[in-house]
UniProtKB/TrEMBL annotation, chains A, B:
It is found in: Cell membrane. This is CASP-like protein. Pfam families: CASP_dom. Belongs to the Casparian strip membrane proteins (CASP) family. GO terms for cellular component: plasma membrane. Homodimer and heterodimers. The chain crosses the membrane at residues 38-61, 89-116, 128-154, 174-198.
């Protein structure tokens, strides 16, 4: 709708006015140019990153399950719990996804603020891509670590005598698997964020 | 040295001549402009990526170790091997690093060719950053997966009864650890490649 108002109003050389008058104060431009679709996609993807990281952490930390399992003294059984703190891989997963979720909500708010007021912080959002690349590595590594350990829990490893546990702790394994899947989605969101940042950089380069 | 010749020779408006004469044939420009340092860094980093992926794969596939270990029939012992094919995580690791090493040598050759003949394929190298981002996710996930499984082999997990194997298969574990460390280096190289690509894109944007 804003772009239609632009077309009807008489505005000579609107697109290049900022190049010719760099010292023009912001109060002289009450209506900023319509926001790019890429900026809106950036906000949505960052919120998706926050949401997926939050879901992955919550599903992982609520995975505790207690079952009655046989103990070495044959006829007796005892309750035993499976929870994510029993594996360093899952602890790393929760730590990494918590940091990424925090990063996601902070940057989505800054990106939304930058979308609503484009002249307030023009440079900040373009620098997020550096952290996006770093966090992509962190989230992908966390997903791989948790997935590798979860796969041993699901299938076991007969070569070294690691028995599977998912036949006993089914709910625990379902939580772990869902959490890893959501974390994989967060990795894809981070890849898309980096690619969109590169796309918006490429669009600024003159032909 | 090429830049000094540029300064001494009388060349009016050398830096903007390509903008004003886009239809000038290549034979009229026998001396291309000096290559950017960023392009040289790109070639070196891509070769480092290839070398580190190759080393990681070679160290992993040569990790086989055979030891005399006790078998369930108590007084007897038998030889048993540990090799990377016993774990799906290590197979994924070898597959991922092989693909990345192949990608590294191909792109380093193209990047070197583009460095020597800048006008032959100006757009190709700038598109590598998309695959760099994707392969960063793949290598980071492979590093995390192999690292997570290797950590169980090193420390075991008493909660689920997974015993450690590195006290028996020491050489095998050293190979795995070295391979994961080199793979981590490859991940860092990929992060640097993406950041340098973004940096070179940012330099092309007019102020």
């Amino acid at each position: 709708m804003a772009s239609e108002n632009y077309k009807t109003a008489p505005q000579p050389e609107t697109t290049t006015s900022w190049e010719k008058e760099p010292a023009r104060p912001p109060v002289a431009q009450p209506r900023p140019p319509p926001a790019s679709h890429l900026a809106l996609v950036d906000v949505v993807l960052r919120f998706l990153l926050f949401a997926s990281a939050l879901v992955a952490v919550l599903v992982m930390v609520t995975s505790k399950q207690t079952e009655i399992v046989p103990i070495p003294f044959y006829p007796f059984k005892a309750p035993a719990s499976a929870k994510f703190t029993h594996s360093p891989a899952f602890i790393y997963f929760v730590a990494a996804l918590s940091v990424v979720g925090f990063y996601g909500i902070i940057t989505s708010l800054i990106s939304l603020f930058s979308l609503l007021r484009p002249r307030s912080c023009p440079k900040v959002v373009s620098h997020f891509v550096i952290f996006d690349v770093l966090f992509l590595g962190v989230v992908a590594a966390a997903t791989g670590t948790a997935g590798g350990v979860a796969y041993i829990g699901l299938k076991g490893n007969s070569h070294v005598g690691w028995r599977k546990i998912c036949n006993v702790y089914g709910d625990f394994c379902r939580h772990i698997g869902a959490s890893v899947a959501v974390s994989l989605f967060a990795s894809v969101v981070l890849v898309l964020l980096v690619l969109f940042s590169i796309r918006s950089l490429t669009k600024k380069i003159p032909k």
